[in-house]
Structure formats: C-alpha cells, structure tokens
Amino acid sequence: MRGITGDSMSGSGVQAGNGRAGVGCAADGREPSAARRPRLARALQRVGALPLIGRLRAALRHDVRILAYHRVLESVEPPDFRFDPDLISASSDAFRGQIDVVKRRCSPMRFDELIDRLDRGQSLPRRAALITFDDGYDDNYSIAWPILRDAGVSAMFFVSTGHIESGRPYAYDWLMHMVCVTRADRLQAPELGIDLALPGSLQDRRTIASELLDRVKTLDADAQQALIARLQREWSLPADMGHPDCRPMTWAQLRDMRDGGMEIGSHGVDHRMLAKMPPDAMREELVASKRAIERELGGEAQVISYPVGGSDAYDAAVIEAVRDAGYRLGCSYRAGPERMRPESRYDLRRIPVERDVCRDWFEGMLALPEVFCYRSRTRL
C-alpha cells in the first residue's frame, strides 16, 4: 500500500514500541538489520556462543535490562482480531519460554529493590533484569500473571487509571478497531489532510490504521481526542460499547496481582501523550493517576511509564512534573539497556519485546542488547 498523503499515504516513521521495527525485506530486496538479527542469534546459539557472550558482556558492563511488553495472548495471530496485532508482544507459550530464559540468564529484580539499591548507592546484580507491561489489558491478568506467578518472577504493570475505572478500551486501540470494522467507504481526517477510500481487506485496513495512528500522534493531545471522538460519532462506533478483545483490567484484578507479588505503576489517567498536553492538565494527569493507584491498592506508586514513550511523548517539563508529583523513576519506550546513571532515573530505556521475537533472538537481546534489540525510531 502507498502511504497517507492526501488521497494516499506516505510513511511517517514510528517510535519503537507502538509501531514495530519490522523484519521483512526492504523494497530493493536487501535484508534490513531487523531481519539479520534473528538469523545471527540462531547462528550464535547453534555454536553455543550466546551464553558466553552474555557472561563476557556482564563482566565488562554493568547495566540493567528493562523488558517492555504490552499484551500476551494465546496466539500472536488470533482469528477475527480487529485490533492492533502489533501490540501482542508474545503468545502464552513464547512468554513462558522467555520468562524461563530470564530466570536462567539474568538476575530478575523488582522496582522497589532497584530504588532501594539506588538510594543506598549499592551496585546492581550482574545482568539485572526487570519486566514491565504497559497500558493494563485484561490478558495481563488472565494469561501473563499466572505464568509469572508460577515462575516466581515479579513484573511491573503500568496502568492508565481512567481506563481501569471506566472499562473503556484505549483510544488508540479503538481508532485501529474503527478503521478495521467501519462500513464507511472513506477515511476523512481533514485535521491531517487525509481523504482516501477504505479497502476491503483487513490487512490493508490495518496498514492504513497503523499509519493513521502515527499521524494522529503528531497532533496535540486535545486534537487527538477530538479526531477520535469525531470518527466515533460519524461512524456510529462509540468506545463506550467496548469489546471483549480489548478490555482493561479491574482494580480487583490488580489487587490480586499486587497480593501475588506484582508491582503496579502509573501510565497516566487516559493514556495521553504527556508532552502534548497543556501544562496544568499534564500535571493533574500525573497526580491523579498516582493518587488513584494509592487509594485503590495502598502503598506508594513510585514508578511511571510515559504513554507512547518516544522522544515526542515526554520532555524536560514532563520529567520535572513527574519528580514534583513524587515518582521515583520514569520509564520511556526508547530502546536499549540502561546503565542507571543518576541523570537517567526519569528517562529509563527499555527493551521492547514483540510478537516476531523467537527464543534465540530473545536470548540475544539479553546477552548483547546493543546488537539484538530493536532500534528506537523517531516520528517525523
């Protein structure tokens, strides 16, 4: 498909995380680096080199791997799925295998342990690893949590509290869903200069919706909400109707997870890009989310993950407001391991895990993340 530009579409570039890095071949037939990484990982695994590389790197470099997930479903290609399949980080079987690798190859930690070590000036264990989930989908509770619980591994679940309370699907998910299911024959978004016919195939509609999402994220937060709300009205697809394939968790489920050893952090109230909000509304979003978690779950909400998480989603003003609100750490969606310097406490990089990551590639991400993890990309 062509990209969206007026009556067509042009590639707009994405941040790692809410858009996949991709592993196919380039248009000129050359294999991109994203496709070479799993092949290299398999080759190194066949000769038994990956564990050795991991041990050697751990002796030379002391940092932490913060793994970032969104959804874990039984399959990475569920039938009749009318939401974003690229937010499916792993199948249940793949996730179980990945947690096994983390236990064998790394030193799993909790964020409260990380904060305590930083406060005391203590070093981190070699090959320290933390597991995080963004948004708060109910499959985190029904599928991911039992696997973590059985393995005795903790994870941090960053939740958008407004959706936990309302049960509404997340706005970006619903935009993807609307494009996939609408009976309208055209997508008209004058806010972005878009007017094009909608094709019949689901895959073509997903392609359009993915590029539309990137374009929408260039708008300020209020304009994003207004565009999505307008399409809900024009297409008679209100988000309040919800959908079983895209439900947030409930507070009761989060309490079960907290009591079972999981950690709960903030992902804002309404999953809005904080740097694109008016300053007062942005600060209220941070305070209100923290207050809701502490009210419903007790304890202190110490860590936040910036919604969307790329370089246009948070900035120095957001970091200052996060610190003022009482958070102790902030996670981005910029890709890479984190050396945990004092200046990085509110700008922590993570390693995205996505549905095309095979086991060898995953082991490569842990052993040598500079080579094997996804590259951060910038929205144009």
Secondary-structure blueprint of this entry?
Blueprint: E1 4-5, E2 8-9, H1 33-46, H2 49-60, E3 64-69, E4 71-73, E5 88-91, H3 92-105, E6 107-108, H4 111-120, E7 128-135, H5 139-151, E8 156-159, H6 161-166, H7 171-181, E9 186-189, E10 194-197, H8 202-216, H9 221-235, H10 251-259, E11 263-266, H11 279-297, E12 303-305, H12 316-325, E13 329-335, E14 348-352, H13 359-367, H14 369-372
Parallel strand pairs: 3-7, 3-14, 4-5, 6-7, 7-8, 8-11, 12-13, 13-14
Antiparallel strand pairs: 1-2, 9-10
Helix pairs in contact: 1-13, 2-13, 3-5, 3-13, 7-8, 7-9, 11-12
Description:
Residues 5-31 have low confidence and may be disordered. The protein is an alpha/beta fold and 380 residues long. It starts with a strand and ends in an 8-residue tail after the last helix. Helix 4 links the parallel strand 6 and strand 7 (128-135). It has one domain (33-168, 242-372): TIM Barrel (Alpha-Beta Barrel). It is globular. It has 14 helices and 14 strands. Helix 2 (49-60) packs parallel to helix 13 (359-367), helix 7 (171-181) runs antiparallel to helix 8 (202-216) and helix 11 runs parallel beside helix 12 (316-325).
